[in-house]
């Protein structure tokens, strides 16, 4: 397969920016809002945004179970920021009140515990250069916006990047997650790595 089709979960969040980055990285792209659209993609990006909203909409659109099934069946998926939270097997909330006291559902797939909003609030957003394992050609500019960090990982999850002692990028088999937003930088190397993962899974 030379040009894989990578969907972007288009319920909420920075969907357009992921389309642009994926296209620049050599993928066909399409929006995923319905189970039929999910069934047609070779891989999926879960964008940054608000993970509680994305999660609620995924349930409302009848997508949560199909998402879990495809991830279990080995579909490559990449989550940035809120997307990282959605791909975590377990979530901790820095401010439990913001979750409305309700358990937040995730798609899961990566054996990790992710702490939401761990790097602080909107006005504590920041950028930092990161060495990301698997990305050649120098550091990636990490854009962190109300970003989560990975509190702990299970045996099968590999840490790809660390900032300030906290894991901020993880890969487990065909699943990739970053606390930061490479789709906002114009540097498409992380998306290129994911598109390669999609190609490899389909080969
Ligand atoms: N930039 C982001 O995606 C922020 C994620 C957001 N704090 C959440 O918990 O969903």
From TrEMBL:
<feature type="active site" description="Nucleophile">
    <location>
        <position position="81"/>
    </location>
</feature>
<feature type="active site" description="Charge relay system">
    <location>
        <position position="181"/>
    </location>
</feature>
<protein>
    <recommendedName>
        <fullName>Pyridoxal 5'-phosphate synthase subunit PdxT</fullName>
        <ecNumber>4.3.3.6</ecNumber>
        <ecNumber>3.5.1.2</ecNumber>
    </recommendedName>
</protein>
<comment type="similarity">
    <text>Belongs to the glutaminase PdxT/SNO family.</text>
</comment>
<dbReference type="InterPro" id="IPR029062">
    <property type="entry name" value="Class_I_gatase-like"/>
</dbReference>
<keyword id="KW-0456">Lyase</keyword>
<feature type="binding site">
    <location>
        <begin position="145"/>
        <end position="146"/>
    </location>
    <ligand>
        <name>L-glutamine</name>
    </ligand>
</feature>
<feature type="binding site">
    <location>
        <position position="116"/>
    </location>
    <ligand>
        <name>L-glutamine</name>
    </ligand>
</feature>
<dbReference type="GO" id="GO:0004359">
    <property type="term" value="F:glutaminase activity"/>
</dbReference>
<comment type="pathway">
    <text>Cofactor biosynthesis; pyridoxal 5'-phosphate biosynthesis.</text>
</comment>
<dbReference type="GO" id="GO:0042823">
    <property type="term" value="P:pyridoxal phosphate biosynthetic process"/>
</dbReference>
<dbReference type="GO" id="GO:0006543">
    <property type="term" value="P:L-glutamine catabolic process"/>
</dbReference>
<dbReference type="GO" id="GO:0016740">
    <property type="term" value="F:transferase activity"/>
</dbReference>
<keyword id="KW-0808">Transferase</keyword>
<dbReference type="Pfam" id="PF01174">
    <property type="entry name" value="SNO"/>
</dbReference>
<dbReference type="GO" id="GO:0036381">
    <property type="term" value="F:pyridoxal 5'-phosphate synthase (glutamine hydrolysing) activity"/>
</dbReference>
<dbReference type="InterPro" id="IPR002161">
    <property type="entry name" value="PdxT/SNO"/>
</dbReference>
<keyword id="KW-0663">Pyridoxal phosphate</keyword>
<comment type="function">
    <text>Catalyzes the hydrolysis of glutamine to glutamate and ammonia as part of the biosynthesis of pyridoxal 5'-phosphate. The resulting ammonia molecule is channeled to the active site of PdxS.</text>
</comment>
<feature type="binding site">
    <location>
        <begin position="49"/>
        <end position="51"/>
    </location>
    <ligand>
        <name>L-glutamine</name>
    </ligand>
</feature>
<dbReference type="GO" id="GO:0005829">
    <property type="term" value="C:cytosol"/>
</dbReference>
<comment type="subunit">
    <text>In the presence of PdxS, forms a dodecamer of heterodimers. Only shows activity in the heterodimer.</text>
</comment>
<dbReference type="InterPro" id="IPR021196">
    <property type="entry name" value="PdxT/SNO_CS"/>
</dbReference>
<keyword id="KW-0378">Hydrolase</keyword>
<dbReference type="GO" id="GO:1903600">
    <property type="term" value="C:glutaminase complex"/>
</dbReference>
<dbReference type="GO" id="GO:0008614">
    <property type="term" value="P:pyridoxine metabolic process"/>
</dbReference>
<feature type="active site" description="Charge relay system">
    <location>
        <position position="183"/>
    </location>
</feature>
<keyword id="KW-0315">Glutamine amidotransferase</keyword>
């Amino acid at each position: 397969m030379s040009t894989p089709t990578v969907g972007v979960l288009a319920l909420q969040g920075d969907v357009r920016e992921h389309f642009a980055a994926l296209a620049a990285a050599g993928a066909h792209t399409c929006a995923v809002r319905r189970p039929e659209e999910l069934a047609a993609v070779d891989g999926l990006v879960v964008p940054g945004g608000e993970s509680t909203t994305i999660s609620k909409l995924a349930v409302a659109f009848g997508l949560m179970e199909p998402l879990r099934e495809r991830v279990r069946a080995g579909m490559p998926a990449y989550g940035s920021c809120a997307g990282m939270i959605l791909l975590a097997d377990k979530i901790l909330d820095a401010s439990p009140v913001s979750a409305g006291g309700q358990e937040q559902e995730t798609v899961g797939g990566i054996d990790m515990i992710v702490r939401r909003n761990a790097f602080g609030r909107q006005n504590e957003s920041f950028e930092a250069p990161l060495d990301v394992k698997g990305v050649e050609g120098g550091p990636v500019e990490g854009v962190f916006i109300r970003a989560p960090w990975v509190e702990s990982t299970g045996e099968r999850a590999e840490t790809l990047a660390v900032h300030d002692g906290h894991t901020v990028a993880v890969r487990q088999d065909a699943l990739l997650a970053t606390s930061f937003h490479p789709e906002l930088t114009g540097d498409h190397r992380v998306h290129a790595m994911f598109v390669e993962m999609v190609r490899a899974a389909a080969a």
